[in-house]
# Entry
Amino acid sequence: GKTIGYLTGYSIYNQLGLTTQISNTIQIGRNVVRPSFKLERFTISFIKQKNIITKENISLLQILDSMRYIKKIPDTTIAASCKRFIFLINNMTEKEKNTMIRLAMKYNPFTRALLGALMENSGNMDIAEKLKKSLNPITSYNLSGIQNTLETAKNWNILSEAKDQTSI
# Structure
């Protein structure tokens, strides 16, 4: 009866409207990672989730995982994914947005920067300020094609092409 994991990865990219692809890989987010294994025609793999998993925050964790692996979403562009994320953020309640910011603090800096840029673009800079303070101001992140879609990306050091800078 206790939630110990949630679906994430390729199956969720499709559910969130980020891709039309359907994969035979099932990814599960858990606090404790297990080795991946095959079950008939499916490959089941696990990704580490540092946040406590509850029924209430699973949908937010799925969105954050999608942002974290934005470069790996098949059959889509970074621009299309960002537009979809903005749509999803705009349809959230203030409580959900605040919870998402809190959950994002346990994600890598790139994910926090991308969420911050998306939040700022959606007019939520007041709650995104916490994310901004958690980032190293001299680190830049490379995400091809982001400048054309997300004009706030530069404020978060997300660059289309990182030249002469440390990029992640």
In short: Strands lie at 5-8, 25-30, 37-39, 42-48, 141-142, 158-159. The chain has a mean pLDDT of 92.
